[in-house]
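Trying the structure run again after the queue cleared.
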Amino acid sequence: MAVAFGLTGAHGHIDFYANGGNDQPGCPKTIFAGKSYFVCDHQRSVFLFLCALNRTCTLTGYPCSSYSVFLEGHCLQCEAFKPASCPVLGYDVSQWRETLLQLGQTQVFFSTTATLPYRKLIYRVDMVTWNQYLRWGVVFIRLHSGRNFTEVRLDQKLLRFEQYTSTRLLAQFDEDLHPIQKISMRINTGNVIGPRYKIRLLRIRFTPLERPERPLMCRFDIIMEENMEVAFRPLPCNSHL
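Done. C-alpha cells:
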C-alpha cells in the first residue's frame, strides 16, 4: 500500500493507493512540524492495514489509472470483479484472486478521513443540466440529517454546465449521516459582477456506492442561481414529484 515516503510504483498483483499515495489527511503539511512531518504519512499505511485486519474499518479500492481521474468520478464501476465488489483492503483477497491474475498489476485508489474508522461516505452523483449560457464552476454539496450536516467541495477541476449535459461527480463526505433528510447545493462560477445566471437541473441522482442497502436519492427540475445555495428534500428515485 502506497503513501508518502513509500513506494509509488506498481509492485504487486494489486497496489492500494490511500489518498493517491501522497499526503494523508490530518498529517502535517510542512517541515516545520518536525519529526511528525516525516513519519505521519508513512505510519498511516500501517494504521490503515491494521484497522482492515482488525475489521474496524472497510476500505474499498477502485481500479483507475490515477488518483486525479478517480476523483473526477471516472472509475466507479467494478464490472471486472463481478459478482464480487471492488477489492477491499486486507489480507484475504481470495474473492478477487482469479480476476487479479487475469488483469496483471492493478492499481486501486481510495480516500480516507484523518481518524478511525477512516472510511468516507461515498456517493456517485449524476446530474443533467439545462441552461441557456455555458457556465463553468465548482460544486458544493451538503447533506443534512436532523441538526447534523456534512459538506464536500468538488473542485478537482472546473465543471462544464450547458444544455442537456450529463455530469458525473464523485462526492466523498467525512461523516456517515443517515437518513438524509435534506440536501443543499451551490454552484460557484466565480461571477461576481453582472446578473446571476440560472442553472437548471433536470435531474440529479445520488447513488451510495458502498451502502447498497440504502436507497438511491433523486430530485427533478431544480432551478439554481450561480453562487447561490438551494436546498431540497431528496425523493426515492422511483418517484417524480
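The mean pLDDT is 89. Worth checking whether this holds up in the mutant runs.
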